[in-house]
Amino acid sequence: MLSSKVTCNSHGQDSSYFLGWEEYEKNPFDEVKNPNGIIQMGLAENQLSLDLLESWLQNNPQPAAFKNDKNQSIFRELALFQDYNGLPAFKNALVRFMSEIRGNTVTFDPNNLVLTAGATSANETLMFCLANPGDAFLIPTPYYPGFDRDLKWRTGAEIVPIQCSSLNGFRITKTALEEAYKQAENQNLKVKGVLVTNPSNPLGTSLSLHELDLLVNFISSKNIHLISDEIYSGTVFNSPNFISIMEVLKNRNLMNTEISKRVHIVYSLSKDLGLPGFRIGAIYSNDKLVVSAATKMSSFGLISSQTQHLLSEILSDRKFTQTYLSENRRRLKERHEMIVKGLQKSGIRCLQSNAGLFCWVDMRHLLSSNNFESEIELWKKIVYEVGLNISPGSSCHCSEPGWFRVCFANMSEETLVLAMQRVTSFVESTVKKNHMSRHQQLLNNRNSRRTKSLPKWVFELSFNQREITVDER
Ligand SMILES: Cc1ncc(COP(=O)(O)O)c(C=O)c1O
């Protein structure tokens, strides 16, 4: 009775990424009410600096109360505003904030900005603008599981993976780019572009200048687009510094060229400010045609005028944004160190990272076999027995089994400590069990060797005995 669009399975809802969330919902951890429940570590949410926003709101009550700085009501103005170009004050404040995150090395023109209901909507809108159904975008693996839904489901576009490997820390290489392009051609797919997340979800690493140069060279030689999802740009807490694709274009004197028109940035305040519920996203494009098409499309997913007004006030407070950004980075760094050390105690290593709200964790040594079935087997144990919802690498399309994304910024410090304790006891019991089963296996092997060789031994003995007997005769 329903359309083929809603009944097709390219939404990705059956991925272990979403299934983990469902399991968490059935038995959510609560310090008091459900201390044995599942701890949610599969959600890239930033709750570490919400208190800073709360105290700003306390000190500045007017914007949330529909008042201007003269304490006059602006309720009617906001209630009636429905221009899909967005509030100019908000667009100005947002581009300035985007520059600030990039150390003011680049500036953004508010006329090139399209407001969307989160990065989810921004990515899909860009797909609608750049790809026909059946066209492909190349994406480095592992990638954010939501892309299968955001980029493919309603647009009919396809994703072809750029296979990255742990051997070089999952870095993008020229060979991997060329191979993905060839793979798409072999599948008769027209490649329309490359999409990267910088810094990466799930790796928590920012792209190097070398990788960014490779990408610009690649899209210019193939005459395709580049989308840089920079939703985590404000979460970079350690060196190396974050380099935006805009900086690369500027430093290579490519601004205002045909190449720069094919480079588009996606941004959102869901991660850097920890406001996913407010649905504040944006597309920044150097191509006027894309800006105009995306603006028209944005009427399907606008940000409410009330939210735009509030955020324009918050982001216009430069002293606040400065303090917020540095304090948020400091807190993320502290949390990151805590989880890395906590896992290290249990002999679990993380990929070295400098950004994001998660670690990319190597649990290959805990797999019963080196395959994705064993990864899911381990994941189920971690969800149901250990009580942690983490995301298996296969849900991020990782090509190697045994990697997991573990989020650390959506819980209290106490909950993270408890999660680490659960990991420690799980690893200890697994090691003990493995040790015992290996010991048992050794015993079994020895016994089976004995039983196997017994007939021969018995035969030899009896034969010799017979001989002896014979000799004695
Ligand atoms: C790389 C990436 N892009 C987009 C999104 C969606 O963000 P939003 O809440 O702004 O729609 C996420 C959310 O996790 C993400 O990690």
UniProtKB/TrEMBL annotation:
Q: A Gene Ontology MF term for this entry?
A: transaminase activity
- Pathway annotation: Alkene biosynthesis; ethylene biosynthesis via S-adenosyl-L-methionine; ethylene from S-adenosyl-L-methionine: step 1/2
One Pfam family of this chain = Aminotran_1_2
Keywords, in A-Z order: Ethylene biosynthesis, Fruit ripening, Lyase, Pyridoxal phosphate, S-adenosyl-L-methionine
What Gene3D superfamilies would the database entry show?
Aspartate Aminotransferase, domain 1, Type I PLP-dependent aspartate aminotransferase-like (Major domain)
User: One GO BP annotation here?
Assistant: fruit ripening
| Signal sequence, start to end | none
UniProt KW Lyase keyword: yes
Entry EC number(s)? 4.4.1.14
**Domain Aminotransferase class I/classII large spans what residues?**
39-422
Keyword hit for Ribosomal protein = no
Q: Which cofactor does it need?
A: pyridoxal 5'-phosphate
**Out of the domains of life, which is the source?**
Eukaryota
Catalytic activity reads: S-adenosyl-L-methionine = 1-aminocyclopropane-1-carboxylate + S-methyl-5'-thioadenosine + H(+)
User: Which PANTHER family does the entry link to?
Assistant: 1-AMINOCYCLOPROPANE-1-CARBOXYLATE SYNTHASE 9 (PTHR43795:SF10), BIFUNCTIONAL ASPARTATE AMINOTRANSFERASE AND GLUTAMATE/ASPARTATE-PREPHENATE AMINOTRANSFERASE-RELATED (PTHR43795)
So what family is this one in?
Belongs to the class-I pyridoxal-phosphate-dependent aminotransferase family.
What name is this protein filed under?
1-aminocyclopropane-1-carboxylate synthase
Instruction: Specify the species.
Output: Artemisia annua
**What does the record give as the organism's lineage?**
Eukaryota, Viridiplantae, Streptophyta, Embryophyta, Tracheophyta
